[in-house]
């Protein structure tokens, strides 16, 4: 792994929130926890929870189990999402209930900045904000805190500055926010799909609650 990515992972603050995904033969199991620390080039140590979700996943929390780890590091001026695949190295209960993971061989690091659109592909819909009727079904092709590009079915009589309810399913939940359409263009002649570029409406804290889970879900999906 490149040295700069290694050093970034090694310096992530303890207690950073961690989204842990356990790979199973059926449906992936998703758990939330926190970072205990990183032993450079050796292991990544997470706290083991004791709530109902962790108890339900107990049979899969064993040595050698494959996992995906996603961390949102907001301690720095420019927040970053860090994601990697790993395996459970061992379970420890000497100084606490710890989950020790192998140090990753590959790391994905995505900066989360207001002015940077990140390429994604997440199923989404545009709804009439009042009637909640679906106006277009498609997907988000890029996303940032401030805006996004939506590709989907052409909306009849859609105009610039028109508002829609952007709805995105994620982990058995539905996230939604208001989008103000600023531009549109045809994707290709065959599909008839349109790309709608828009600005997400709301204050920064509200928009982060909408955007961050989508990016965490998408990175290393």
UniProtKB/TrEMBL annotation:
Gene3D superfamilies per record: Electron Transport, Fmn-binding Protein, Chain A (2.30.110.10)
Limits of the Type III secretion system flagellar brake protein YcgR PilZN domain: 16-104
Keywords: Bacterial flagellum, c-di-GMP, Nucleotide-binding
Keyword hit for Nucleotide-binding: yes
The name this protein goes by in its record: Type III secretion system flagellar brake protein YcgR PilZN domain-containing protein
